[in-house]
What we know:
alpha/beta; 8-stranded parallel sheet; globular
Amino acid sequence: MLLQLARLGYRAVFNVVFRRMDTERAHHFGAAVIRGLGACRPAAAIASRLTRPSAKLRVTAMGIEFPSPFGLAAGFDKNADLVDGLAALGFGHVEVGTVTPVAQPGNPRPRMYRLPRDRGLINRMGFNNDGVERAADSLRARRNRGAIVGVNIGKNKVTEAADAVDDYVAAARAVRDVADYLVVNVSSPNTPGLRGLQELDALEPILRETLAAAEGVPLLVKIAPDLEDDALDRICGLVRRLGLAGIVATNTTVSRAGLRTRARVVEAYGAGGLSGAPLATRSLEVLRRVRAGLGDDACVISVGGVTGAGDVRARLAAGATLVQGYTAFLYEGPLWAAAINRELARR
Length: 347
């Protein structure tokens, strides 16, 4: 009951305050609160006792024991400085980043837009982050050493596609000692030319060299939902052949099909990746295709359009090893993960 009342309270605050606030500004406000929670040990300890997942939800993947199959996707904690607070909110793991070898500001603002009628989000952030060394330092300084952390790595905008492998290798080397797993991001639509790296001729050397640089840390690749089925099959074959830990499916989409938000509003927002509920159907389709292509042993992390415990159960039933969410966090509030974990444990 207390959990439900708190969630209702957040929704009221969201509708009155955050919904009227610039989306990125609201994100920074929320991040500051989460950072403060993680920095205050008594508050984090109390929150953890209230949100800790049931022992029944533990799952082993990539040789790691996760306290829950549900975690936070990359994009929320870009600089890896919110892990303590996020872990205290009940997430079974936190994927930080995307981080690049050198700090970069990302694309010009405004670059993030809510679609409340669709429970969606459009962003063209452009891998804004303070650089991989800063992320590594933040992870070394975190207090909650038990939190499971994945690090999502990318290439800098100024790096030519032909040299992208060097960026991924450099990033992997910088964080391999502070990451439980690594994810190669070649699927964001907001860095020019990045999605072209999903072509096998470009992707194979990136994955091969980054796998070597990871030195035993599990490595996955994150793919776009806009790939054709034959491209998905080829990537699955490459992942099997190289011996990667698995695939994260999926990133945001460039499609705007089926939105309830008025077309002129969506058009005014411009380019960027769409996430949230509109992505659910395609993400589930890709999950099934990827699981069939990888077989039973590889790790598949399903992300895209996950809103509640029912979505998590559906992804697990469709073959996901782990499930992630992000966009619904903005709409549901800080107790979102705890509510999902409680419902999963109940059933």
